[in-house]
Design a protein that fits this description.
5 helices; alpha+beta; 6-stranded antiparallel beta barrel; globular; 153 residues
Length: 153
């Protein structure tokens, strides 16, 4: 079932449906089920940021990959021509809260560059083939954000 969902999400229409339907549902499901249930891939987290302009709390359900003690999220926005809003929020204020499985913790975001970005993006593509489709769909370089525990920064 996850493979079929991934194939659907890799299509342009599927990507739109995933971002417009599944992600908003996950914003409710993840806190409600303590991260045990998600419509997204197996490793999905709920990212809480502060709006860059509004200052309001904003939520995004995102797939993630592990990088040691860090978590990495991909600012793909389904291959859209612009970065997602949560990316701009992280640039403005890198302090975030993440919830995955039964863990809720503070993290600090930074953008991966060079070899680190390439390695993490390749890891994400190997786990979720949709990222390769998103990369082909856009002319921008898709950012990879590393979420670290504050005490390790």
């Amino acid at each position: 079932m996850e493979r079929n969902g991934e194939a659907l999400a890799g299509s342009k229409l599927g990507g739109i449906v995933y971002h417009r339907v599944c992600c908003p549902v996950d914003r409710v499901l993840i806190p409600l089920t303590k991260g045990r249930v998600s419509l997204g891939p197996a490793d999905t987290l709920l990212l809480t940021t502060r709006g860059a302009r509004s200052g309001k709390r904003r939520f995004a359900a995102l797939a993630f990959v592990r990088a040691g003690d860090d978590l990495a999220v991909i600012a793909s926005k389904g291959g859209a021509p612009r970065h997602p809003g949560w990316y701009h929020n992280l640039v403005a204020d890198p302090r975030v809260t993440v919830q995955y499985r039964d863990v809720v913790e503070e993290r600090v975001a930074r953008e991966a560059k060079g070899e680190e970005r390439e390695r993490l993006f390749a890891q994400a593509k190997s786990l979720y083939s949709t990222y390769a489709a998103y990369e082909r769909r856009t002319s921008r370089t898709i950012p990879v954000l590393v979420l670290s525990r504050p005490d390790s920064v």
